[in-house]
Amino acid sequence: MEILAFGVTADEKPLLEQAFAGTHEIRCLEVFLEEDTAPIAAGYEIVSSSVNADLSGRVLRMLAAGGTKMIAQRSTGFNNIDLDEARRLGMTIGRVSYYSPYSVAEFAWALALTVNRRLVRATTRTRDFDFRLNGLMGRDFHGRTVGVLGTGKIGEAFTRIAHGFGMRLLGWDVVQNPACVELGMTYVDKDELLESSDLISLHVPLVDSTRHLIDAAALRRMRDDAILVNSSRGGLIDTEALVDELRAGRLEGVGLDVYEAEAGVFFLDKSLETVADDTLARLVTFPNVVVTSHQAYYTTDAVGQIIDTTVANVADYLAGRRSENTLVPPE
What we know:
Pfam families: 2-Hacid_dh, 2-Hacid_dh_C. By secondary structure, the protein is α/β, with parallel strands linked by helices.
């Protein structure tokens, strides 16, 4: 059987081809799965999608009309999939329920350190042979307070690193993680965490209850010199409200690997185009903001696990099995 994979990067393609070698052929496309590209999938029973795919009801109906019966999404989040419509269509949906939490946790710390120690500005200067230190002063994280919103696997990994820095640990989640408590984390309500933390990092999934978890009111509760990091999902932050706070001179810095309107922008080369998104255009101009293109997961370890799970999801579908990765089971 030939499988069609959308949104495949150049680094990912040989890994996918090698993983499926000997079992199935795989056709890899750089384009993302959306309404305009869905017709390409006609005739493919199994389609694999990437994190920014549009799997709304309309796209799912187009895929089903073309003969697609199974979608193997190569990501953990599935807020982009209309699961109810998939069930109605009898379409099987699989995802990657787990991959290396260290990839995202370590990258979140990379963002925090980059913002705190002004590394982008410093490297830009030295390339111009400007070796002054003016404006590059940061702070020790040791002894300061970190607030972790979401203490699952990634939040726990982030907390372990914070513990290594010697930070005071505050957490917020619907369920306390015993491993984080053992590290010395104190669970508090969200408002207290926002008001008390020098560094705030987001590690919760994007669902209806967490959309704009960091809104204008939450931002106002943060210290003027707080650092905010988001390596989870862009929709957790009200970006327009964030821009307003930054314009007012608040927050020491912001590190973002995700953006709520990233679909159709992230993973693509837009360098020769006029930026139509005024909010994003304004956001990247702040000297204390670092924006990366949803790359926190992008390590050989994590991508390898994602691909191995995708192969297993395809095998489960063909065998009529379900697993922890199954969002909509086969009929």
